[in-house]
Design brief:
Blueprint lengths: L2 H11 L1 H25 L8 H35 L1 H9 L4 H41 L11 H21 L9 H6 L12 H20 L6 H30 L1 H4 L4 H14 L1 H27 L9 E6 L5 H14 L5 E13 L6 E6 H8 L10 E5 L14 E5 L5 E11 L9 E4 L1 H7 L4 E9 L7 H12 L7 E5 H40 L1 H13 L4 H36 L6 H31 L1
Parallel strand pairs: 3-7, 4-6
Antiparallel strand pairs: 1-8, 1-9, 2-3, 2-5, 2-8, 4-7, 5-6
Membrane topology: Multi-pass membrane protein
Keywords: Cell membrane, Membrane, Transmembrane, Transmembrane helix, Transport
InterPro entries: ABC-4_Integral_Memb_Prot (IPR052536), ABC3_permease_C (IPR003838), ABC_permease_BceB-typ (IPR027022)
Length: 622
């Protein structure tokens, strides 16, 4: 048998152990490769949205690769610990550290090459669906298949280098002068964990303080960072101290502890929680990040949708705007150049402010006759001192209450005795700002309180095709923001901000979250496999004193359920409080996207749990 054949036999004979590592690595390669195929697609070479998509996909590629580095490093370390006895025997037989390094490198490269091949093949199979879904979500034209030589080279070369470099670190975990320790493996008798009461209370206190700050509301400034630190610190001490303290308290509850098989799984969990505290901390934080990111993106996409404004382009010019005519000419030149037939409406308005608590939000006041002429909205019976309120498209997305009465300010931001009673609140008219409509007499009487302004509205068809030059106009107009006496907004730009960009973020973030979550589940599997030999010996001893196979299965199931769903539950709790801040900020549609997100991950976790339970029980029953 050659050295390479020996390495191959080691992999194939431990295929059950390597299966989770192989599948998780292959899945990471698959996602990386499909993103790379999307990133280097010839159809994404030009266009504003395409450029943003390429930047997002590039960032995702780096995140997946860095996380894959940490994931593979942890996985290799876990497998090495489970094979301590094997390495000890090899060292006793005379294998040198260099040969051991070569053996481990060969094994990892075999797994790596198989993972890369499986991931790339899966990527090719999945690519058509990925392109179709991606083009649909991002509202692009259908993306045809192509031969992704660049994506193949980067994926294959990058992951081969990753597996090779990580293999070189493994020799540091094994020393030739530790043969006895390797032979003994993990057979040392472990003392019962004794948590610190002070640290247990400290962990719970940190979590309670963080959650309390969220419930209090008004999370601004440095408070989110402080809440994040409290949550991370509290989570670590909760798993390493508080959870063990709770289990030790259960052991003192004799009527519960000495009932049936409770004595087995409670005693085992005390040691498992202590040994796996850092792992549970990492899994819960990773899962919470995945849940929160996906939930926020799904909520934002569901809540902040595209609101129809009356015009495809809006330009509001204030007094002293010397660039008004220049800007209007540029708008019309670009519309004509790109083949758009447009209609322009010009109207006189007043840019006025009103008092709302400690703030002075602006509003555009328009004459009732202009409202009927340009927006085709008829208001009957509008009396002096009354107004109809039309929120801006962005304001209408939030759970903000429209004012019942507007206390108007003058141009010097001083409160006046002029008031407007809001008769009715209707759907948005434009995106630039909120609008109030008053009758002609009220408009003439109050327009001097505000700043004289002119509103120009452009209407044309196929507005989604105007994103590229719309964004170019916006960048040119605002420049360095040093001399701005106007507001400019386009429906294509608004749609990009509120629909297309969140869709792109959701599209990318969802796959990254799945990669993270899959790796988190794999971490638990690797840890179980590391301790499997010790667990088999323990259950063999318990079987000799009367433990039945059914009781063993029930005990294993309870322990695995706690190991899988305890960090999951903490992650869900963190996510609920993280998204609680969004309801305080005014976003109302949180429950639906959050339930869908967590429910999807929960189903995925249940399937993972059932697969691991089945594999683990088979190993225990052998």
């Amino acid at each position: 048998m050659t050295f390479l054949q020996f390495a191959y036999k080691n992999v194939t004979r431990n295929k059950r152990a390597y299966l989770a590592f192989f599948l998780s690595s292959a899945f990471s390669v698959l996602i990386f490769f499909t993103f790379a195929m999307f990133l280097f697609h010839p159809a994404l070479k030009e266009g504003y949205l395409n450029n943003i998509a390429k930047k997002g996909l590039t960032a995702a590629e780096w995140m997946i690769f860095v996380f894959s580095f940490l994931f593979v490093l942890y996985s290799v370390n876990a497998f090495l610990k489970s094979r301590n006895k094997e390495f000890g025997i090899l060292l006793m037989q005379g294998i040198t550290p260099g040969q051991l390094r070569a053996l481990i490198t060969a094994e990892n490269m075999i797994i790596g090459i198989m993972s890369i091949a499986a991931g790339i093949i899966g990527g090719f199979i999945f690519s058509k669906t990925f392109f179709t879904v991606g083009a649909y979500i991002l509202e692009m034209k259908a993306l045809p298949l192509y031969m992704p030589w660049k994506a193949l080279g980067i994926t294959g070369g990058g992951f081969l280098l990753l597996f090779f470099l990580l293999s070189q670190f493994t020799i540091f975990f094994i020393r030739s002068n530790m043969i006895i320790k390797l032979i003994k493996g993990t057979e040392k008798i472990k003392p019962e964990p004794k948590p610190s009461v002070i640290l247990s209370l400290f962990g719970v206190g940190c979590l309670a303080a963080g959650y309390g700050m969220v419930l209090k509301g008004n999370v601004h400034g440095y408070e989110p960072v402080f809440i994040l630190l409290l949550t991370i610190i509290g989570t670590y001490f909760f798993f390493s101290q508080s959870s063990i303290w709770i289990l030790r308290a259960l052991k003192k509850w004799k009527t519960f502890y000495l009932r049936g098989k409770n004595v087995i799984w409670v005693s085992d969990l005390v040691y498992r929680l202590k040994d796996n505290a850092r792992l549970f901390f990492i899994v819960s934080i990773i899962s919470a990040v995945a849940f929160t990111a996906t939930g926020v993106l799904a909520m934002y996409k569901a809540t902040v949708g595209a609101k129809e404004s009356a015009y495809e382009m809006e330009y509001l010019s204030y007094g002293g705007n010397k660039k008004e005519q220049t800007h209007l000419k540029e708008i019309e030149h670009d519309l004509k150049t790109h083949g758009f037939t447009y209609k322009r409406d010009d109207m006189e308005v007043s840019y006025i402010r009103y008092q709302q608590g400690d703030s002075a939000p602006p509003v555009i006041m328009i004459n009732q006759s202009d409202l009927s002429k340009y927006f085709h909205v008829s208001l009957d019976g509008l009396k002096d001192g009354e107004a109809v309120y039309f929120p801006g498209t962005y304001d209408s997305n939030l759970k903000n209450e429209s004012p019942d009465q507007l206390k108007l300010l003058n141009q010097k931001q001083k409160l006046t005795d002029q008031k407007l009673s809001v008769k009715e609140v209707k759907k948005p008219l434009i995106s630039l700002n909120s609008v109030i409509a008053v009758n002609g007499e009220t408009f003439d009487h109050l327009k001097s309180l505000g700043e004289k302004a002119a509103l120009y509205g452009y209407s044309y068809d196929h507005w989604k095709d105007s994103l590229d030059f719309s964004q170019s106009l916006k960048n040119n107009f605002y420049g360095d923001y040093s001399d701005v006496h106007f507001d400019f907004m386009t429906k294509a730009g608004t749609y990009y901000d509120t629909v297309q960009l969140p869709s792109l973020s959701l599209f990318i973030g969802l796959f990254i979250a799945i990669v993270f979550f899959t790796a988190a589940g794999s971490f638990l599997y690797f840890r179980l496999f590391t301790d499997s030999d010790e667990d088999r010996q323990r259950y063999r001893s318990l079987a000799k004193i009367g433990l039945s196979e059914q009781e063993m299965s029930q005990s294993v199931t309870i322990q695995l359920a706690i190991l899988f769903f305890f960090p999951f539950a903490i992650a869900v709790l963190h996510t609920l409080f993280a998204l609680r801040t969004l309801t305080v900020e005014g976003y109302s549609n949180v429950a639906g996207p959050l339930s869908f997100t967590i429910g999807g991950f929960f189903v995925f976790q249940v399937l993972f749990f059932l697969a691991v339970r089945s594999s683990y029980l088979k190993k225990m029953k052998k």
